[in-house]
Amino acid sequence: MTMTQPTHQGASPICVAALYRFAPLSRLGEVRDALKKVSDEQGIKGTLLLAGEGINGTIAGSRAGIDRVLDHIRNWPGFSDLDVKFSSATTMPFHRMKVRVKQEIVTMGQPDLDPASDAGTYVDPQDWNALIDDPDTIVIDTRNDYEVSIGSFAGAVDPMTASFRDFPDWFARERQRLLGSGKPPRVAMFCTGGIRCEKASAYLKSEGLDDVYHLKGGILAYLEHVAEEESRWQGECFVFDQRVAIGHGLSAGTHELCFACRRPVSPADRLSPLYEAGASCAACHGERDERQRASYRERYRQELRAAEQGRAHVGATLEATGRDHVG
Rounded distance, CA 60 to CA 67, Å? Predict the structure, then answer.
């Protein structure tokens, strides 16, 4: 499935909205039930995560239905400035609507942080180049290793973390090397859609750093608003939907998703003798045995058959990854 930016002409029938907001949220069970009800009434599908710190998720459906759900959320106290990024899809990218209550809307293992009031300073995409070009700025990519592997900003520090939960431990280990013993430097952080770097900026401030910045709207906003000839971005950006990766102007990327391990696989990776569509890639081949690969082949075969018949397979696509939406 190919996804692109929506236009006023509505070239694609499905509107996709990725959203988040850090703001205090209480009575989560009641909020969850009401949100699920209005989403179901509007025929909206996707996943929304709720926690005491706010909301995070991606939903899809008609533009009118999406707007109704967004209006419902914006009516909550403190949520009028909900951060939303729109794209469009030729087919529905989700098979059900899930609204889940969690400890954190993006899991860092730091539930006492308050990004709503203690996050760093937003930097608009148009001002990002000047900030990261400054040699006194330390630029940190807050995403996971499989995301960084296919693209990042030139010169950014790669934490090589398998999970966002690993970020505090990584920073604790690397703090002295990164920051030195003199005056705390300026730190600029980024992520896919803005939520992880916003929370990471609150974490660094809790660690005593004051000169902390994060890219507003994340890489997605940068690739949308900054011309390719002026861009400092190199490679593609991994996204948590069926596009897998995108490039400048939010154009479709070249990566696919390994059905077995859900890592991005480049065209060159797909030439490996260890790559088998639906069963393995070079990165995960040694992590699975033949019995597991046989199971993946069968599930992949069932998914392809379901797609041919125009019906959803219960284990299909990114909903089977076990990953919460992040951005």
Answer: 11
In Å, the largest CA–CA distance within the chain is 64
Question: Which CATH number does 115-235 carry?
Answer: 3.40.250.10
Domain ranges of the chain: 3-101, 115-235, 255-320
pTM for the whole thing?
Answer: 0.84
Nearest-angstrom CA–CA distance, 85 and 309: 32
Structure-block tokens of residue 219: 């890489």
Q: Which positions are annotated as active-site residues?
A: 191
Mean pLDDT within 256-271: 93
Are the C-beta atoms of residues 73 and 50 closer than 8 Å to each other?
A: no
194 DSSP assignment: S
Range 3-101 classified under CATH 3.30.70.100: yes
41: number of Cβ within 10 Å: 11
CA distance 310 to 102: 33
The two tokens of residue 50 are 């709720």
Query: Which residues does 133 contact at the CB level (< 8 Å), separation at least 6?
Result: 232
- What pLDDT, on the 0 to 100 scale, is given for residue 88? 80
The span from the CA of 306 to the CA of 325, in Å, is: 25
Query: If you write DSSP's letter for every residue of 212-280 in order, what string do you get?
Result: EEEETTHHHHHHHHS-GGG--EEE-EE-SSTT-EE-GGG-B-S-EE-TTT--EE-TTGGGSTT-BTTTB
When pLDDT is cut at 50, 70 and 90, the band that residue 320 belongs to is: very low
Strand-pair partners of 215 = 123
pLDDT of res. 1: 33
The per-residue pLDDT for 311 is 61
Average pLDDT over residues 136-164: 96
Is 50 exceeded by the pLDDT of residue 259? Answer: yes
Give dist(CA 13, CA 267) in Å, integer.
Answer: 29
pLDDT bin (cut points 50, 70, 90) of residue 323 is: low
Q: How many helices (H) and strands (E) does the chain have?
A: 9, 16
